[in-house]
Amino acid sequence: MGKKIPQRQCIGCGEMKDKTALIRIVKTPEGEIVIDTVGRKNGRGAYLCRSAECLAKVRKSHALDRAFKEHVPETVYQKLEEDFGHIE
User: Fold this and answer.
1) Is residue 60 classed as helix, strand or coil in its secondary structure?
2) Are 9 and 23 in contact (CB under 8 A)?
3) In sequence order, what E strands does the chain have?
4) pLDDT single digits (tens) 58-88
5) Domain of 58: which CATH number?
6) How many distinct structural domains can be found in the chain?
7) CB 87 within 8 A of CB 50
């Protein structure tokens, strides 16, 4: 029997996917919101598909606000879009 791959839900489309297929966005204990490229940063995480469509849905529906239980500034979304272009 092979090793079990953890599943996580995309906050954009709501689909369950392998954890490795998603991008982890983290709110650090200091309150900074960043993309976690290694998946090990300390803090509250939210997962997002590697598609621009899902990022647009998250931005429109304010899903990050709900995931992190606070208002996420527009500048964070702009930074995520910039970083997203390098990862996608």
Assistant:
1) helix
2) no
3) 7-9, 16-18, 23-27, 33-36, 44-48
4) 999 999 999 999 998 888 888 888 887 777 5
5) 3.30.1230.10
6) 1
7) yes
What residues make up the domain containing 56? Answer: 7-87
Beta bridge partners of 8: 17
In a domain, 1, yes or no: no
Q: Which two tokens stand for residue 7?
A: 């599943």
Examine residue 2 and state whether it is found in any structural domain, yes or no.
no
Cβ(81)–Cβ(43) under 8 Å? no
Side-chain half-sphere CA neighbours of 19 within 13 A = 11
Residue 88 confidence (pLDDT)? 58
Q: Is residue 45 part of a domain?
A: yes
The angle subtended at Cα 36 by Cα 34 and Cα 42, nearest 5°, is 90
The whole-model pTM stands at 0.87
Tokens 């970083």 found at: 83
